[in-house]
Automatic annotation (TrEMBL):
It is an enzyme of class 2 (transferase). The chain crosses the membrane at residues 343-368. It comes from Linum trigynum. This is non-specific serine/threonine protein kinase. SMART domains: LRR_TYP, S_TKc.
Length: 724
């Protein structure tokens, strides 16, 4: 019996081991993709020219067990089929294309061998795919009609690529689609009427393309009963906005900014109960806004009535609307037959040479951009000045507004035209650099306050450059510099280039002229007891929104984007109306600038150095909002973590705890929901991991919601005016 017992004890572990191995093998094989789907993934890796997120794939890769990351997510169903494929590359996009364009076009687009049609031929062989997201991968070409083969697709995201042509009508076959994002491409034509077939659609984002048609009709919009978020901004859409859009039962967010939309909306237009965000800015709208959005919509730079701030005169919108009026139907009918024949012939030719046409288009684009840069700041010699044996290169030429993107023009309204100053003008403004006008000094630069002949106050900053900086090498930097004009920036008004008299081809000094904000900084207001009383919660929300919009403009309003902007309370200036303006942001100047210069330099293009620096700006914005919520000054990273932990605790423990955290100065002036939303986005901004922080677009969306909640609370008579 004893022997038998010993054998039993020896056999039992052996069988247990076998069972364990069997279970491991079964579980792993259950999650193995079929060979056909595995082959598709390897082919996609090759077609995409081995982008960084896919470089580790090899014959031993078990795709169903790949760890998810922001750059790559592969998910499988329980029965071992691919359901989710998300790939985010590191190529730039049309909105962030640097100037001049790099000679190596693979910096932003895949090579001439790439075929978007071939890519989708393979992708459609994944029958269970529910999420397909291919972002910033340099895809180019026309979107093929075979996308209708995705029978189960729910999320379709091809944003930040170089996709051209029209959206194919076959898009309407994707009955299960809930999210369609084609933003930041080069898509033209119309919003296809077949969109109305997407009855499950919750998000439609076609922003940042070249759509030039009439706005989608009410018939199309009314079919999208589940639509929550609509973004058609930064296109060339025209015509009136159907009132039915705002009354869709599920609609929450509408962004139609930067188009050519015209006409008037009925003041009696009804709005859906969930509508929280509306941006109609920079269009050609007239009349009054519907009462349901009048108080909260962003509607600047239209021609609206009713005392709306920052509006053009009515004549501006009438004139511009005539300029963008589409051709009449009569003209279309007369030439329809011959046009069809010509169109068929042209399409046949294009179909046979699509790759060649793309390459030719790129060459033309490069030539146009370079020619614009040359024409933008022509050089004219002036007579030598009296200052340090220097001569001046300057010009009375000002930048033509038609060369500046619409978003740049609209944000800069209220500023004088960009001006190229002569040294004599700089000397006059500063009274020959009078010591009384001196503000600060470093080893290679000085800062003076000045007054122009029209009486406006300015700041003059000097950047001393090394001899090897040729004026023509500065032009690409000057072009970006000239676009730094925005409501929420201390804007650049102009510049002056000074050369050595004995080396007339070498730049000695660059003077940069800024608007002068004299009302103090946000730091001044929060540390001065009497000034702090002015900053109730509505004012703090407006300041926060202003800072966020300033950062958003620096990141996306110029190309390449400007990051790492030293966003702190001392650099947030407030004008007389408490409008926030970012100062001391990074300027796009050559690295030849000395380290002690009052202007920090940034090479162009230098996108690689911006890794996580956009999220650093988001973190610093979070620090500002944290101080605005609590009223406490932060002097160290330890204090940031301590206050953040207290804020998280306040959110977790309920209203009374969070209210206790809020600055007592704001008591009775905030809606709790507005405060809570601001606190939540602040905590996210202050995440230790940069990749876990939200984008500045997400921050803006949440802050806008917080602001709209606050506006609704104010208008309902809740605001304690005795606290104001």
């Amino acid at each position: 019996m004893e022997t038998f017992g010993c054998r039993a004890n020896a056999i039992t572990p052996f069988f247990l081991l076998l069972l364990l191995l069997q279970s491991i093998l079964l579980s792993s094989t259950a999650q193995q993709l079929p060979p056909s789907e595995t082959r598709v993934l390897y082919r996609i890796q090759k077609l995409l020219e081995y982008p960084e997120p896919l470089q580790s794939w090899n014959n031993w890769t078990n795709f169903c067990y790949l760890p998810a990351s922001p750059a790559l997510t592969v998910l499988c169903s329980s029965d071992g089929h691919l359901t989710d494929l998300t790939i985010r590359g590191n190529k730039t996009s049309p909105s962030r294309l640097p100037n001049p364009i790099p000679k190596n076009k693979t910096f932003f687009a895949l090579s001439g061998k790439f075929s978007l049609d071939s890519l989708f031929t393979d992708l459609t062989k994944l029958p269970n795919l529910k999420t397909l997201s291919l972002v910033s991968l340099g895809l180019w070409g026309h979107l093929p009609s075979k996308i209708n083969r995705f029978a189960s697709l729910q999320v379709f995201n091809l944003s930040s690529n170089f996709i051209t042509g029209e959206i194919p009508p076959s898009i309407g076959s994707l009955k299960t689609l809930t999210s369609l994002v084609l933003a930041d491409n080069l898509i033209n034509g119309t919003v296809p009427g077949d969109i109305k077939m997407l009855v499950s659609l919750q998000e439609l984002n076609l922003g940042g393309n070249n759509l030039r048609s009439e706005f989608p009709s009410a018939t199309i919009l009314k079919a999208l009963i589940h639509l929550q978020r609509l973004n058609l901004s930064r296109n060339k859409l025209m015509g009136p906005i159907p009132p039915a859009l705002f009354s869709l039962p599920s609609i929450q967010s509408v962004d139609l900014s930067d188009n050519n939309l015209n006409g008037a909306l009925s003041v009696n237009t009804s709005c859906g109960s969930q509508l929280r965000f509306v941006d109609l800015s920079s269009n050609l709208l007239v009349g009054n806004l519907p009462s349901c959005i009048s108080a909260s919509a962003i509607a600047s730079w239209n021609c609206l009535s009713g005392g709306k701030p920052k509006q053009h005169p009515y004549s501006f919108c009438h004139k511009e609307a005539l300029a963008v009026k589409p051709p009449t139907n009569k003209g279309k009918k007369q030439g329809s037959s011959s046009s069809s024949i010509r169109l068929g012939l042209i399409l046949g030719i294009i179909g046979g040479a699509v790759g060649l046409s793309f390459l030719i288009g790129l060459v033309i684009f490069v030539m146009v951009r370079r020619s614009d840069a040359k024409e933008l700041v022509p050089e004219h010699r002036f007579a030598p000045s009296l200052a340090d044996k220097m001569s001046v290169r300057s010009s009375v030429h000002t930048f033509e507004s038609r060369r500046v993107p619409k978003t740049m023009r609209s944000a800069a309204i209220g500023l004088p035209p960009y001006h190229i100053f002569s040294l004599e003008e700089i000397e006059d403004a500063t009274n020959n650099f009078d010591p009384l006008n001196f503000i600060g000094e470093s080893t290679q630069g000085q800062l003076y306050k000045g007054c122009l002949v029209d009486g406006s106050e300015v700041l003059v900053k000097s950047v001393k450059l090394k001899h090897k900086n040729l004026p023509q090498n500065l032009m690409q930097h000057i072009e970006v510099l000239s676009k730094l004009r925005h409501l929420h920036l201390v804007s650049v008004l102009g510049h002056c280039i000074v050369t050595f008299q004995d080396h007339p081809t070498s730049v000695a000094t660059l003077f940069v002229i800024f608007e002068h904000i004299t009302n103090g900084s946000l730091h001044d207001y929060l540390t001065d007891r009497r000034k702090k009383e002015v900053l109730k919660w509505p004012q703090r929300m407006a300041i926060t929104m202003g800072v966020a919009r300033g950062i958003h403009f620096l990141h996306t309003g110029v190309a390449p984007g400007i990051f790492g902007n030293d966003v702190k309370m001392e650099n947030v200036l407030l004008d007389e109306s408490l409008t926030a303006k970012l100062s001391n942001y990074t300027l796009p100047l050559p690295s030849k600038v000395g380290t002690e210069s009052p202007l920090r330099g940034q090479d162009l293009p230098n996108l690689n150095s911006t890794e996580n620096s956009d999220k650093e700006d988001v973190y610093q914005l979070g620090m500002i909002v944290l101080q605005l919520i609590t009223g406490k000054r932060i002097k160290s990273s330890e204090e940031v973590e301590e206050l953040k932990a207290q804020l998280e605790k306040g959110l977790a423990e309920g209203q009374s705890k969070l209210r206790d955290m809020a600055d007592s100065t704001t008591k009775g002036t905030y809606a709790y929901e507005s405060l809570r939303t601001a606190a939540e986005i602040t905590i996210n901004c202050l995440s230790k991991e940069p990749n876990s922080r939200p984008s500045i677009e997400d921050v803006l969306w949440n802050l806008q919601y917080s602001s709209q909640v606050q506006d609704g609370w104010n208008s309902s008579g809740n605001l304690n005016t005795s606290q104001m």
